Amino acid sequence: MLIKICMGSACYFLGASKIAKRLQELIDETSLTDSIDFRASFCMGPCSEGVVVEVDGQRYYRLSPENVEEFFQREVLNRIENRNGK
User: Fold this and answer.
1) If you write DSSP's letter for every residue of 24-38 in order, what string do you get?
2) How do residues 18-32 score in pLDDT, each as one tens digit?
3) How far apart are CA 86 and CA 24, in angstroms?
4) What secondary structure letter does DSSP report for 48?
5) Fewest CB within 10 A of the end CB: N or C in the chain?
6) Per-residue pLDDT for 78 more than 70?
7) Phi and psi, residue 36, nearest 5°
8) Using an 8 Å Cβ cutoff, are 68 and 24 in contact?
9) C-alpha closest to that of 4 among 81, 75, 74, 67
10) 47 near 11, Cβ under 8 Å?
11) Which CATH architecture group holds 2-83?
12) Which SUPFAM superfamilies does the UniProt entry name for this protein (predicted)?
């Protein structure tokens, strides 16, 4: 799974670095470092809808430090569980 987070100036200002840090912690806590390729990205475009995160090509908007854990559960863990047939 490829996860990219926008680090353009608008997203950075909205907390992208905090979100990236927490996503990396969640990846580590769930022992998914071998299953997830997590990368920072240059500006992904829709600056007014940041923070932007992309999971396997699907974009998600308006992530925040407050909703990143819910996002991880819903969009990352659920996707991995569905792939594994759970």
Assistant:
1) HHHHHHTT-TTT-EE
2) 999 999 999 999 999
3) 23
4) G
5) C
6) yes
7) -125, 130
8) no
9) 75
10) yes
11) 3-Layer(aba) Sandwich (3.40)
12) Thioredoxin-like (SSF52833)
CB neighbourhood size of 48 (10 A): 7
Structure tokens at 57: 């090509």
Question: What's the confidence (pLDDT) of residue 82?
Answer: 84
What span, in angstroms and rounded, lies between the C-alpha atoms of 5 and 39? 7
Over residues 8-12, mean pLDDT: 96
For 73, half-sphere exposure in the C-beta direction (CA atoms, 13 angstrom radius) is 4
Structure tokens at 40: 């920072």
Strand locations in the chain (E): 2-6, 37-41, 53-55, 58-60
Say if residues 3 and 37 touch (Cβ distance below 8 Å).
yes
Is the pLDDT score of 83 beyond 90?
A: no
Question: Please, what sign has the CA dihedral across residues 16, 17, 18, 19?
Answer: positive
How many residues are listed for the chain in this entry? 86
Q: Domain limits of the chain?
A: 2-83
